[in-house]
Amino acid sequence: MSRSKKFALYLIGAIAIPFFLLYGYMLSNVWSLELQTKSYLIRQGYSEDQLLKVKGFIGKQPVYRVDVVFKDEPTVIYHYVSREYYSIIPSYGVSKILQTGIQLDTPSKKDYKHLEPETRKQLFYLFN
What we know:
single chain
């Protein structure tokens, strides 16, 4: 193998390896936030049977978000975040899970069963 090909391979490896390490780190944070959100919901009195889907995502801001769908409201997606995982680099020590809102096909004034009081106040101001 020629010297220029070796250099090109080393250069590609030097760029690709940190990228894949960062992506793996971010996926592990998403997985951790999914578990934290699930345990938070169980502490709030929900059972695992009531949860249809708990799925984490990598986004822009907040970087990590978990969407929860309950079996009795399959058309409503509840968004949860953690202050710990609000940016790419976690801020350890602050791991409170917060419900930040809901996602609907059509906004309505329906009484959503799983809205937390703080989120309910925020939505009240949006719909009124």
